[in-house]
Design goal:
The structure is a single chain. Among the domains are: 20-46; 87-191, no CATH class. The protein is 57% helix and 0% strand. The chain is built from 8 helices and no strands.
Length: 191
């Protein structure tokens, strides 16, 4: 056993004496590619609908989503959890994944692991998302709903006026459209 530790230490601490530099660079390059591919596979797996609804409290949220236009509509475009809740830019995505790990931890430690506990925390969780959307100008919404792509003339008159004003102010979508894909928390519902 002692010889194995000495061999491993020598392999990693004194590799140039036994292995050529070209081999080290090649092995390092291949290891880097494999690590990056593993990282990307992990990111992709945690962006799937199946991963999101694996917590039964999120399954409840998917049921809410199924009742909205984001699930079923005349154009056939369906929004998934990651379309709205995971930024598309790499840096923002990593920051959001770190934030989401707190939510996963809350589920694992029992803070939001039942529908009742989730409901008790819904206002706080929703406010966190609304604040994030306001801070980034609803960037995820605008992937599909860009002001520049809207045909205001096809909207109802009241919608057209509101949307033109919002576009002129470059307003965040959640200023008017809270609860568009999930029910609004009871504390924040307006009569």
């Amino acid at each position: 056993m002692k010889n194995m530790w000495i061999w491993l230490r020598n392999l990693f601490c004194k590799p140039a004496a036994k292995i050529g530099l070209g081999v080290l660079v090649t092995v390092g390059f291949i290891a880097g590619i494999l690590a990056w591919q593993g990282f990307n596979a992990g990111m992709a797996a945690t962006n799937t609908e199946e991963f999101c609804v694996s917590c039964h409290t999120m399954h409840q949220n998917q049921e809410e989503l199924k009742e909205t236009v984001h699930w079923s509509n005349r154009s056939g475009v369906r929004a998934q959890c990651s379309d709205c809740h995971v930024p598309h830019d790499f840096t923002d995505k990593m920051a959001r994944k770190i934030q989401a790990s707190v939510e996963v931890w809350s589920h694992l430690t029992g803070k939001i692991d039942t529908p009742e506990k989730f409901e008790a925390n819904r206002a706080r969780l929703a406010q966190n998302e609304w604040d994030r959307f306001k801070a980034n100008g609803s960037k995820e919404c605008r992937t599909c709903h860009d002001y520049n792509s809207m045909d205001f003339e096809k909207m109802r008159e009241t919608s057209r006026e509101a949307m033109r004003g919002a576009a002129e102010r470059n307003q965040s979508c959640v200023d008017c459209h809270q609860g568009i894909a999930h029910k609004k928390p009871a504390k924040n519902r307006h009569p």
